[in-house]
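Running this now, will post back.
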Amino acid sequence: MTHLVFICGHAGTGKTTLAKRLVAPLMKATGQAFCLLDKDTLFGVYSAAAIGALTGDPNDRDSPLFLQHFRDPEYRGLFDTAAENLRLGIGVIAVGPLSREVREGKLFDHAWLGVPKDVKINVVWVTTPEETARGRIVARGNPNDAYKLAHWDEYRQRRFVPAGEQCEGLLMFDNAAPAAADYDALIAQIVQAPQPSGLMLPPIPV
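Update: finished.
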């Protein structure tokens, strides 16, 4: 069985760092090859050039213009690239915030994602306290975060913790200060977790 693992959560939660740490242990645990697909790596340079040509600000990643016209095509490219690898029998760890898709329950929908039906999907929701996440964002000094930091009160309204039906099938991971045992437990959950029922939640506007 080929695995698709989404590493999701808000900025500053350490998604990419966690994903990189999981690659080798998952290859060992499953006996299959994995690739890492980070949305920012795949599309960051292109989107910077495109939005920069439109607005003069290549670092815009959170304005209404970016969210309306660039967000969804970036994710579709991520899903399509994942599907190509999965069809070749290569497991995928895909990294991106994906908060809207988690809220709407779309990440377990093979048809919507465009991935083969026999792929096992796991969705890891990475959390840290808001103040920890903001501190990490400030410390990393990425110019793509400038709009987010300048409009933090607006941005923080998009931060949420999945609850109720939104949690169905999610693997929650507290990334504030994880120990080795926490990583081991997450890997075991990914390998052993049963598939959720695929319940689709009604759309929630961002």
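Confidence is low (pLDDT under 50) at residues 198-206. More later if anyone needs it.
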